[in-house]
């Protein structure tokens, strides 16, 4: 109560009029020594009700989620729970994420979803198809996702055992690390590659698997990317600061839809040079290396020659067989086994 009085006095001194902010109420509740004191701070009956439809949603091209946590629902302080309402549109995906401080139990109201979870390093990938009326548990700290497999919207309700569960979107945050670190972890990708990939990461909820989109006749249009990691000098992308990287790390990334740039070797046809400089021309060929293209061309050429040879052999053998058939003569059944050399015996066709 003392903290409540002090807060009211501070608001009056600064000329602030009106109800305290949720953050102020949370501070009071955390300072209260007992539950009874917290109930007195929450002096309105409506303080115990949360209206999901009147709160800000996290939106993407594939749907939206609305969460009730301690930050927007102060009554949850010291009560160890929170809740999220999720609406996945047709083929919408709640992209891979973790809850660092809570275990989640998700109940599906309608439709059907597929889910995936990796609890930690060394553990198996856990995959399920969850139908309406069923629930699944996602372990604290695990990477998990939910995908609407239908062409109609679905609704889920997720309960978490912390008033402050936290959410860490795996893809957005991973690519928010310094680009040279991300590139090294991915086997040596250049920072321009990393920047190109990072620019394509959609906001959650995103459009999901291509098979579902094709089945539901949904086009993967440009999706919003406002949830990307904020940047400063420590994790800046190429071109954002004066930071420089070796030329071997600055090869540019080209999305699959981009028109491939003509290779500088396409006019000379110098195969040896193309192979030797293969590493520098992967992006120019739309992500396919010169050595792969040359190998494919050789294989196709060998197959074509093989088919021609087979066709010629078949035609020659057929003509020979036709010639043999033309030289054969017909022998009547009653002459079978008899000599065809003329003798003094009566001819077989002499009338009797």
UniProtKB/TrEMBL annotation:
Highest taxon, organism lineage: Eukaryota
Annotated spans, Disordered: 219-265
SUPFAM superfamilies listed in its UniProt record: RmlC-like cupins
Any single GO CC term annotated in Swiss-Prot or TrEMBL for this entry: extracellular region
PROSITE patterns in the record: GERMIN
Keyword terms, alphabetized: Manganese, Membrane, Metal-binding, Secreted, Signal, Transmembrane, Transmembrane helix
Signal peptide per UniProt: 1-18
Molecular function terms from GO: manganese ion binding
CDD domains associated with the record: cupin_OxOx (cd02241)
Pfam families for this protein: Cupin_1
Localisation per UniProt entry: Secreted
Parts of the chain that traverse the membrane: 292-316
Composition bias type Polar residues, residue spans: 224-251
Protein name, entry field: Cupin type-1 domain-containing protein
Source species of the chain: Ganoderma sinense ZZ0214-1
